[in-house]
């Protein structure tokens, strides 16, 4: 159902304004408080300028991009699989990407310039492999509640295998590699340096653009593949586009930040209940909502225990875990 343009504009404008306020709060908050007016007026001290430019600004940009990618991919996957529990974390995409990145870190990483690109490629390949496996399972199962349960079980199996593989890699890793894997596995934005963030922003922007191009086709797909085909939808091309965009974006996010769980489930599911199933509004709203939630969570992670820092993936899991249990209990009561 198409929403009136005025409501669409109000929703997106409200989310954008909330994101800008969160960014202003995040920019000024941290172990070192920074005056935004001092930065704008040029009266800030050199240390504040250096911290802002070298550390805080790339971290904010990466938080916006990763939050938008995870939530946007969650909304697209829920539309593609036609069930509200599809999520890059629950279906194993993040775990698959994490396992491939861990393999790269322990077995192939070096100090050369190709290390960063290898880590990006490993994350993309891991997410793509898992996405193809899950998509194949969904195609065999068709629709219905049995298909949803099969997808969740497949995601559980993939997450378990990835966890076991990560345990083996941790066992053979050096002390330095083990610490890197441990901190990265909990989800963190501390790797937001310009040389990593700039390339990630470009690749995530491409993935988000591909998802936005799929909004109208995802709306048609909700009517069923036969009806959508009669309306001129090439379902196979749509699925390839969403799979590639999701794998690229989630793989890049995991390669840089580790596994930040439940953003892809929590944000689009809540917005779908509020805004309805139309993806031409749901997709951009989910991207803005995901960016907002991750920026707020990361700011809390940096400030609650300052000067220490809580991994942001722990905070999102503390939010998403109880919400997922609530969804499952509500579905059981409805059956």
TrEMBL record:
Q: Tell me which UniProt keywords the record has, alphabetically.
A: Cell membrane, Membrane, Transmembrane, Transmembrane helix, Transport
Q: What InterPro entries would the database entry show?
A: ABC_BtuC-like, ABC_transptr_permease_BtuC
Please give the Gene Ontology molecular function terms for this protein. Answer: transmembrane transporter activity
Supply the Pfam families for this chain. Answer: FecCD (PF01032)
GO BP term, example: siderophore-iron import into cell
Q: Where are the transmembrane segments?
A: 57-77, 89-108, 120-138, 150-172, 192-212, 242-269, 281-300, 312-329
Recorded GO cellular component terms are: plasma membrane
Membrane topology of this protein: Multi-pass membrane protein
Cell compartment(s), UniProt: Cell membrane
**Family membership:** Belongs to the binding-protein-dependent transport system permease family. FecCD subfamily.
Q: What is this protein called?
A: Iron ABC transporter
Q: Which organism is it from?
A: Halomonas campaniensis
Ranked from the top, the taxonomy reads: Bacteria, Pseudomonadati, Pseudomonadota, Gammaproteobacteria, Oceanospirillales
